[in-house]
Amino acid sequence: MEANQNNLKILLNKVPEVTIFFWIIKVLCTTVGETFADFLNFNLGFGLTLTTIIMGIAFFIVLYFQIRATKYVPGIYWLTVVLISVFGTLVTDNLTDNVGIPLETSTAVFSVLLGATFLFWYLSEKTLSIHSIYTRKREVFYWLTILFTFALGTAAGDLFSEQLGLGYLHTGITVVIIIACIFLAWKFLKLDGILAFWIAYVLTRPLGASLGDYLSQPQINGALGLGTTVTSVIFLIAILAIIVFLAVTKLDAAIKSEPAKTNQTTGRKKYVLTQTVVVLCIFFVVGIGGYVGLSNNLASQTDSPQTSLVGQLSNFVKIEGDILNSVNSNDIASAKKGADDLEHQWDTAEPKLRKIDGKTWTQIDGTIDDVLAAVRSANPDASKCKSALNNSLSIINGANKLESQTATTQTTSVEKTQSDSPKNKLAGKLTDFVKIESDMLHHVDSNDFTSAKQGADNLEHQWDTSEPELRKIDSKTWTQIDGTIDVILAAVRSKKPDASKCKSALNNSLSILNGVNK
Fold this sequence. Notes:
This protein has helices spanning about 1-10, 20-45, 45-70, 75-95, 105-125, 135-165, 170-190, 195-215, 225-250, 265-300, 315-330, 330-355, 360-375, 380-400, 405-410, 415-420, 430-445, 450-475, 475-490, 500-515. By secondary structure, the protein is mostly helical. It folds into three domains: about 1-255 and about 265-270, no CATH class; about 300-400, Up-down Bundle (Four Helix Bundle (Hemerythrin (Met), subunit A)), CATH 1.20.120; about 425-518. It starts with a helix and ends with a helix. Residues about 1-10, about 255-260 and about 405-425 have low confidence and may be disordered. Keywords: Membrane, Transmembrane, Transmembrane helix.
């Protein structure tokens, strides 16, 4: 009777057998998780938050059907894996881009959460084997573990490939080498199969992401340039084909002749525990060593010790200015090429800029994501593109021109006294700029863009001339106004100025100028 019950449990196991097809689909699902999220975020213009909400809802709906199923169903199981790969990736991306949590922190936190899940799973069920997922509790532990493996793989992969400048190709190669070492250790050194499985499962996330980016990213980035849409379709078709093959052949649902063993001898437990500790120590030492080495390499590449992004962003101002001109000229093809260049240049500069000022980098990165999403959408909306570009240009210009804290605080006691004096405020000092912008607004209302452009030249000249005095009085407010003036100059000087955009920029700047001047 007991033997029959064990056989029944194996029959109803909710997870497929680990075959070569398992790992192929896993990597394909991971790749789709990377490219499909980018497709929704950028191509369809959903944005990171909305994409996360949509994919989260889809994941939990499919997970409900997966848990309700009484046996392994290839279609439902692998659809759940695809969606959890997307959702897990987006969880980390949101923490990094929207919340501003450093990737080092995310990697550490998800490592702890994954370890805690394994610990509670083992204490509750006395096994971490995926061959024994035949109770609801074990399945909950299983999917929670899968979620954390994707979140951890995303954080660790992005940390090394993007922030530390290792690159997706080199990251992918490194992961392949590590997985090969794990396989050899399992094959010839008797590394525990369950331990080897979960290590490989975590590592296939950055491997799949590297593959997805290599296929989908533009050729200017050193990739194949297939795009997220084509890459997602190719891999989804491949996943579907393999799932149909497995559903027909049932190669991944073969029943073993003996029940899965959930109990281990004391000696075996100690042996596996020792292996686990050793492997974790190796990963810890190699991971920390790699992090320190790559960080030092980044530091050595910096010509001088930078404490701010001042003067480091001029190239991005130019690129976005060119994109804005293309959008104003309704030349969307050129705008999209500019977006590719912007993404490439920004990704290339990420390790250096992020190390200098991670907080400001994250803020700018969010605005660039908005620009890419707007410009690359299937049917770009000119007003959305201009809004995203003007917002990004305002922030980038502010960071690029803002003096470092050291420079602004190096004052003599006399200067400090002057800065505390009531007369050192911008009230009453901006009247000329209010008049210049008001005249420009009148010219725009009259469709006299020639005079408006002449006014823009005068505005820029007067503002640059007054910069030393005004910036010393109130650097923070000066930077805010400087950003609005940059938006005006970009709007008025475009090849085909948009009257509504010019009016909006001028009214916004005048509102701030009048408020400060009074």
